[in-house]
Each structure stands twice: as structure tokens, then as C-alpha cells.
Automatic annotation (TrEMBL):
<dbReference type="GO" id="GO:0016020">
    <property type="term" value="C:membrane"/>
</dbReference>
<protein>
    <recommendedName>
        <fullName>Cytochrome P450</fullName>
    </recommendedName>
</protein>
<dbReference type="Pfam" id="PF00067">
    <property type="entry name" value="p450"/>
</dbReference>
<keyword id="KW-0479">Metal-binding</keyword>
<comment type="pathway">
    <text>Secondary metabolite biosynthesis; terpenoid biosynthesis.</text>
</comment>
<dbReference type="GO" id="GO:0016705">
    <property type="term" value="F:oxidoreductase activity, acting on paired donors, with incorporation or reduction of molecular oxygen"/>
</dbReference>
<keyword id="KW-0560">Oxidoreductase</keyword>
<keyword id="KW-0408">Iron</keyword>
<dbReference type="GO" id="GO:0020037">
    <property type="term" value="F:heme binding"/>
</dbReference>
<dbReference type="InterPro" id="IPR002401">
    <property type="entry name" value="Cyt_P450_E_grp-I"/>
</dbReference>
<keyword id="KW-0472">Membrane</keyword>
<keyword id="KW-1133">Transmembrane helix</keyword>
<dbReference type="GO" id="GO:0016125">
    <property type="term" value="P:sterol metabolic process"/>
</dbReference>
<dbReference type="InterPro" id="IPR036396">
    <property type="entry name" value="Cyt_P450_sf"/>
</dbReference>
<dbReference type="GO" id="GO:0004497">
    <property type="term" value="F:monooxygenase activity"/>
</dbReference>
<dbReference type="GO" id="GO:0005506">
    <property type="term" value="F:iron ion binding"/>
</dbReference>
<dbReference type="InterPro" id="IPR001128">
    <property type="entry name" value="Cyt_P450"/>
</dbReference>
Length: 217
């Protein structure tokens, strides 16, 4: 960023560099941490889903030599776990939406949107639209099996040319976390009705305290 220039050879100002660094820290850290937190929450509330994730992850763990690290092929095998992560991000998307500018006049749902207008697309309302996701309140990872949701309906990472460039890294972070926690522990929430607050990401109001229960050897 210190050496990058625009088309006119101008460097970024200190303020612009600080803005980019903060954007990357928040965009790269808080999003994945919010996703992991809601996955932990749903897995404690849905024991049948927990069991299926555990089964998948133990098959991978048991195929490794002692101390052998996860590799790319192992990540590709975590299909059910990723479906669970996706369903968690559908119901509690870390990013609530993003802005766009209309590049031409168009009509949407009876509203005329002129070229140049700024728009905000909402992850939350898209993910809860029953036309895109039947029974939208139901936690159902099978929605992501086969070809999965139609394009631009499941948008936790946005869509199009400005889609999140950290998506694959986030997938890796989330799956490696799920693997390492679930193969060691079950867990139970300590607060039954903990509220989720969105500020700006969905986070349990009291930090989701859980009791970890190690698996028997
Ligand atoms: C679960 C984790 C994450 C979620 C849910 C998420 C979500 C999003 C969303 C919704 C956007 C806007 C996309 C659009 O406008 O179409 C975005 C943009 C962005 N994300 Fe992520 N993100 C995650 C992780 C990360 C990570 C790990 C990084 C970097 C290490 C990252 C870096 C960025 C950057 C730089 C942009 C701006 C892209 C642009 O404007 O061209 N994100 N992200």
C-alpha cells in the first residue's frame, strides 16, 4: 500500500492506508469470528446435526497418522460440515449487506431505480425469503446439497465482481476450527435464551459461554 499508485501516479494518503488496514482487520477477522460463534451456538442447540458433523470429522481424524496436520484433500471431504457452516451463515449472516451503484435505469418490484442511484442489498432479507429458501426459519443443511441454492440467493460473501476475496480463506479458517474443536469436545450453552445482538455482526449478547465436555478416550 505504501508503494501502490493510482492511474495518475498518486500514492495513498496516511488516512487512506489506515482506512484500508482497518477495513481488512474488521472484514477479515470479525466476520469469520462471528460465523464461528454462531456455528458453535447452533451445534450446541442441534445435537443431531452435531453428531453428523462429528461423524464426518472423526472419519477424517481417524484417517490421519498421530500428529499429522490437515491437508487440502481433507478440507474437500468436509462437505457436510461446510453445509452446516453455510446454513449457520444463512440464518445469521456476519455481513448484513453492501452498497452498489446502479449502472443503468431499471425497475425492481415496481420501483424505478435510475442510473447512478446508490443501493443497499440485504443479506438477511434475501436469506429469509421463502421463495429462495422454503421454511426459511428451519435449520436445514441439506439445502446446500447437490447444486444448492440458485445463484445470488445465498450471499453471505456477496456476489459479482466485488464478492468477498477472503471467501476461500474464511472457509479454511471455519472448517479447520470445526475439525479441531469437534474432534475433542462436545459442549453445552450455559445461557439457554441468550439474545443475539447485531452490532454490526450477529454476536450472542453475553459472549456465548459454553461448558466444554471432552470426548471419552
Ligand atoms: C465468514 C467470513 C467472511 C464473510 C461473511 C465476508 C463477507 C463479505 C461481504 C458480504 C463482502 C461484500 C461483498 C460484495 O459487496 O459483494 C466482503 C468484502 C470483502 N471482504 Fe469479506 N467476508 C469474510 C471474510 C473475509 C476475510 C477472511 C477477508 C480477508 C482476509 C475478507 C476481505 C474482504 C475484502 C478486502 C472485501 C472488499 C472487496 C471489494 O470491495 O472488492 N473477508 N466480505
Amino acid at each position: 500500500m505504501l508503494v501502490a499508485t493510482d492511474d495518475n501516479g498518486q500514492h495513498m494518503t496516511d488516512l487512506e492506508i489506515a482506512d484500508k488496514i482497518l477495513g481488512l482487520l474488521i472484514g477479515g477477522h470479525d466476520t469469520a469470528s462471528a460465523a464461528i460463534t454462531v456455528i458453535v451456538k447452533y451445534l450446541s442447540e442441534l445435537p443431531h446435526i452435531y453428531s453428523l458433523v462429528l461423524k464426518e470429522q472423526m472419519e477424517i481424524a481417524n484417517s490421519k497418522k498421530p500428529g499429522e496436520l490437515l491437508n487440502w484433500d481433507d478440507i474437500q471431504k468436509m462437505k457436510y460440515s461446510w453445509n452446516v457452516a453455510c446454513e449457520s451463515m444463512r440464518l445469521a449472516p456476519p455481513a448484513q449487506g453492501a452498497f452498489r451503484e446502479a449502472i443503468k435505469d431499471f425497475v425492481f418490484s415496481g420501483f424505478s431505480v435510475p442510473k447512478g442511484w446508490k443501493l443497499y442489498w440485504s443479506t438477511h432479507s434475501t436469506h429469509r425469503n421463502p421463495e429462495c429458501f422454503p421454511e426459511p426459519e428451519k435449520f436445514d443443511p441439506t439445502r446446500f446439497e447437490g447444486t444448492g441454492p440458485v445463484p445470488y440467493t445465498f450471499v453471505p460473501f456477496g456476489g459479482g465482481p466485488r464478492m468477498c476475496p477472503g471467501k476461500e480463506y474464511a472457509r479454511l479458517e471455519i472448517l479447520v476450527f470445526m475439525h479441531n474443536v469437534i474432534r475433542r469436545f462436545n459442549w453445552e450453552k450455559l445461557l439457554a435464551d441468550e439474545k443475539i445482538i447485531v452490532d454490526p455482526m450477529p454476536i450472542p449478547a453475553k459472549g456465548l459461554p459454553v461448558r466444554l465436555i471432552p470426548h471419552k478416550a
